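note to self: dont lose this again. the chain is below, predicted strucutre after it. 380 aa total, dont forget to put it in the shared folder this time
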Amino acid sequence: MKQLSILAACVFTLVSVKHAQSQQLTKYVDPFLGTGGHGHTYPGAVVPFGMVQLSPDNGTEGWDWCSGYHYSSDSIAGFSHTHLNGTGIGDWCDISMQPLIDTNQVNERFIKYAFSHQQESAKPGYYQVQFKNGINCELTATERCGFHRYQFPGKTQWIRIDLGFHINWDKTTAASIQVVDDYTISGYRYSTGWAKNQRIYFTARFNHKIRYYRFINTQTSKDRNAQGTDVKLLIAFDAPDQTITVQTGLSTVDESKAAQALQEIGTDSFEQIVIKAANKWEKELQKVRITTNDKAFATRFYTALYRTCLAPSLYSDADGKYRNQDNRVLQMPNGQPRYTIFSLWDTFRALNPLFTITQPQRVPEFINSMLQFYRDNGLL
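---
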């Protein structure tokens, strides 16, 4: 009863009687809570309401893998840039990347590497895992960009980009990938599933020069470009420091807008983006402060509060442009953001009323996104 009254007080009045503004609240967030059982959550890197949810995928079919990841798994098949949180149906997992120790399984549907949860960690805006083969993987994110950092044990570093990667109800309908220059690739993935016509465009930038590349499972290919419903790209590097970083911008409009999204990272280092992501989460969590000496309760509470800021997620570019379901490129009035993944049948009872308290500036943007969807598609 005491905990219930504390919860009610902080949700409806947002009053703090003990904790100072300067106390760090992100330390109470455990992104692994909900990744077991039937929680259907993911542990990866994301910022509040971001378009990018960069997270590991186990490469396992089944209802408990709606988010791509389940805590019972002991292997990872790659890291993709979009994920659903807490849903009852699986989708997304767009633009999958897997660092490779060798090329022995390069033609397989999934290349799964074993790991231990003792070698895995996560906090708001950051995820890390070390495979048993020695590759250490770190992820962070901005609103529209994913930032990977892979440390390899060998002299040659391999990465496979898999646009055919899919699980459960999702399926690639068309994909294209292009080697733009020695440091950049771009492309798109069209898919069907829960969303019948989803289109994601990307541009990815590497910190080291591409030494070698090869397309896999192509239906058509020409020089530096390939297409297919299961197209993959194998890339090799010879990095002296054995560390490869990948910065991936996303857009629903086209590859050039995805490249513009990379401006969110700019010249910042991986560590700087981790800090910026943590600061964004701290700002959100500081909106609700509770009084309790029970650290386990504080962890449950702030992890739940953290989860309330994962959806809706951004759908538009920084200028408000987005691609509609009938493939038209439109723009929100005055460049305001467009959001998606409202899942109103799940959220209308509690989450949406909570937003009127915790997200007063975003609520008009959410409502305008719903109204714009009606204008675009004739239904709400």
